[in-house]
Every structure is written in structure tokens, then in C-alpha cells.
Amino acid sequence: MNLGNPIERKRHATGRGDVRPPLSASPARGWPRFTRIAAAGQRGFTLIETLLALFLAAIVLVSVNLFVFSMGELWGRGGDDRLFDRHVNGVTRFLQNSIDQATMEMRPAPENGAAEGGREAGRLSSTYLGEPPSDRGFGDPYITFELLESPGILIWPETPLPFIVCYLEFSPDDGLSLLWHSRLEEGFEDDPPRRTLLSPFAREPVFEYYDPETESWTERPDFERDAEGEDMLPDRVRIPFASEKRQTERVITLIGNKRGALGAAIQ
Length: 267
Fold this sequence. Notes:
Elements: H1 6-14, H2 47-100, E1 105-106, E2 123-124, E3 127-130, E4 142-147, E5 164-171, E6 175-182, E7 194-199, E8 206-211, E9 216-220, E10 236-242, E11 247-253
Antiparallel strand pairs: 1-2, 3-4, 4-5, 5-6, 6-7, 8-9, 8-10, 10-11
């Protein structure tokens, strides 16, 4: 018995003659290395098969990337349209709500007791055609409305004041702006009103007048005049909005206006 051999020592120590060396034994210590032989019929991928698989995988990855980028581009364009529509809806909603909330001012009735502008004597709608009292190159009258309280969109240098007079200004360069100031300000009669840009996408408006006799609407690019040559407040204002890729329009109804009702700047 050769006890110098590890197998013989293990067999002698345990009394068992069938001791097998572990598979992880190192041949340097006298243990044989076992190699797994592939079963008959099994083989690896050839070089051509590997290259073909890589080529197909590359085609799939390129197709997925093109799809993702194209969907992102389409989604981005759709996002611009949605933001544009949201902006237009926000501007028109603010204007319509402000005109709906416009106050009514009572004025002394004319001496002859006649109704002024087809309305009850002494009462004028707070939506009318007017001009800023400073009269510094404003020219044509503006669609004007008055509010008891200042809207949150207006930024004041100090504490917001009530009794706000607002003028809608349409400019081919700047779009739609809101001129505004308070009747309680010391410089109301002399200083020009402040300007707040509402939308740079607004275009020249269309003024619509309703004729109850013919039950029809008339569209005009400027204010219609009565028999005396005075500008008349329209019943509706159609405002176009246009960006580089999208165009739309909204209609603002001037609440309380009737055919023949004249606006006037409140003194």
C-alpha cells in the first residue's frame, strides 16, 4: 500500500475502497481533471450565423429608434398645438369673464329726459367705446369695460386699486394688449394707462353687428357708424389667432350691448 498517494491515504483512513476524487481537484495535487464532452449532434454557432444574428438585431434596434424619435417629434408638434389652444382659450376666457363681470355706472339723466343711445335714461353699459382720458395719440376709440376689482393678471407697482378701466388694443405688430388704470389714481386724467400684453398671436379683429329687423349679422373691419356719424359698439368681436403652424379664432360677446347703443368715455 502506497500511503504517499492521496487516494490511498483516504482509503486507508476511511476503510472504504471506492473513494473518488472531487471534480474540482487540481491535477497538480494528483487528482485527474474531468472534461465534459459534448453529446453527439451538438455544436456551436458558426461565424456566419453569429454575424447574421447581429445584423438582424441591428435592424431591429434601428427600427425601434426611428419609431421612438418619430413619435417624439409628432408628440412635440402636438404639444405645441395644445399649448397654443390652451393659450387662446385662456385669453378669450379672461376677456369674456371680465366683460361679463363689468359693472354698471349710473349717470344723471339728460335734461330732456330722453334715453341716451336707446337705453334707459341715466344708465350706460360699462362696456362701451372710449378713449383714455390722457388722449396721448391713442386715436380711434377702444372697446372699453370697467371692473370693480382688479383682475389677478394685472401687475401693480403697489397695492391694487379698485374701479379699473380697461381698453382693448389690437396691434399688427404686438397682437392683443390690455390698457388699464384705476379711477382712484392721482394721474388718471393725465397719465397714460398701463399696458399688459394678452396675446402676441392675436390678429386684426372683425366687428360683428346684429340687425334685429333682418335677423342677420354684418361683419366689418372697423366700427359701424350710426346716422349721426358716431361709432357704435359691436355686438360681438371675432378675434383671429395665428402661429407659424396653426390658425384659429374666437368670438367675444359684448354683454348688455343692443343695436344702436353708443359707447362714450366716462368723464
